[in-house]
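Quick start: what a row looks like.
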Amino acid sequence: MHHKQNIYILAIESSCDDTSAAVMHNDKMLSNVVATQKIHEAYGGVVPELASRAHQQNIVPVVHQALAKANIDKKLVSAIAFTRGPGLLGSLLVGTSFAKSLSLGLKVPLIEVNHMQAHILAHFIKEEDKKVPSFPFLALTISGGHTQIVLVNNYFDMEILGETLDDAVGEAFDKSAKILGLPYPGGPLVDKYAAKGNPKAFPFPKPKVKDLNFSFSGLKTSILYFIQRETRKNPNFVEQNLNDICASIQSTIILILMDKLKKAAAQTGIKEIAIGGGVSANSGIRKALQESEVKYGWSTYIPKFEYCTDNAAMIGIVGYLKYIDGVFSDERIAAKARYVINQ
């Protein structure tokens, strides 16, 4: 790569309920600002209409802050990178139209980014003494909307080896939390209580799914029936056993993920394994991956917490990689709610 260049990418991410802007200097992150939308907590899930309205309010201050934090004049910006999809259409439209008008106003190129590719390529954001995966590697992308095992041959040559047939893993965490009466978003709370519990307290069945695909809807149903059954016997069952229940749910989910990852590694012969996406912030998954280095001789790559959740720095690194390849988008580009990782 031509590191002599001074490329400044201003990146915008608005796929779901976080508005984020970042400034990259080549492959180094100068700023990464995220505005989260608290409004959805009252509804127990993301309300698309409210999300796009909040993006409209947040986007100007967030971009302004990203430039100020990076201490970069907007005249220095080489290109605007933005999330084209996948995500909520209303949310994506805010970022897309803002990025277009900014690129026109600054007379700089526009670069579209696939949000799921960005979760994987976040590993290439340059940091001191941080090792990066070498190609080919396997990536497990785990978030509220996605669960995939991806074979990454090169920055933009990716192939989905397996994915969920129903719920995403983040959904499985959040829905389990809802069954237990925990507030939204419940995934991080399950993680918190699980740390204090016994993962073998309550065995839950692992679904039998062929190949490298996943399924989480059956697990959710068995957790629901289990809680209903036990609560009939003892109305205080959940509060008395919260830590153990969370630990048991979490360890079952991690086993499901790790079994498929082991299978993928065995089938491909690849020992370079990376994770990405919102659920890669889960402490149990991070620990299981670290332990697998010793167990299976893998080299594992775990993102910093700020690159796990939706953020614009990961959009920026993809923008930089596309910029040096001369891959730009046209002003007519449209947001895409469904956008396959290998397109």
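That is the whole record. The first helix runs from residue 48 to 70. The mean pLDDT is 92.
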